[in-house]
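Hi support team,

I've been running sequence recovery on a batch of backbones for a student project. Most finish fine, but this one hangs at about 90% for roughly twenty minutes before it completes. I'm not sure whether the input is malformed or the queue is just slow. I've pasted the C-alpha cells below so you can try to reproduce it. Let me know if you need the job ID as well.

Thanks,
M.K.
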C-alpha cells in the first residue's frame, strides 16, 4: 500500500510552513509587546523564531512528536534466538 508509507512524510511537509508562520507571528508579537516597555527587539526575531520552531518540530531530534514506524516483519532480518545443541 504506497499511500500508507508517504503519509508521515506529508505531515512533516505540511508542518514546515505552519510552524514557521507560528514562530514568525510569536516573534512579531514579542516585538510588539516589548515596544510598550521601550525595548526594541527588532524585526529579525520573527523569522529566527519561525526557522527554529520549524526545524525543531519537523526535525524532532528527540522523537517526541513524530513516532517511528515499526519495521515490517517481512523485510527485517532478525537474528535467530535458537541455539545449536551439539552432542
Amino acid at each position: 500500500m504506497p499511500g500508507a508509507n508517504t503519509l508521515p512524510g506529508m505531515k512533516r511537509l505540511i508542518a514546515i510552513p505552519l510552524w514557521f508562520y507560528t514562530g514568525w507571528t510569536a516573534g512579531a508579537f514579542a516585538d510588539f509587546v516589548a515596544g510598550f516597555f521601550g525595548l526594541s527587539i527588532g524585526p529579525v526575531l520573527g523569522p529566527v523564531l519561525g526557522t527554529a520552531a520549524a526545524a525543531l518540530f519537523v526535525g524532532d531530534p528527540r522523537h517526541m512528536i513524530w513516532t517511528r514506524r515499526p519495521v515490517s516483519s517481512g523485510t527485517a532480518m532478525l537474528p535467530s534466538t535458537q541455539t545449536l545443541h551439539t552432542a
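--
Follow-up from support: It reproduced on our side and the slowdown came from queue contention, not your input. The chain has two helices and no strands. No action needed from you.
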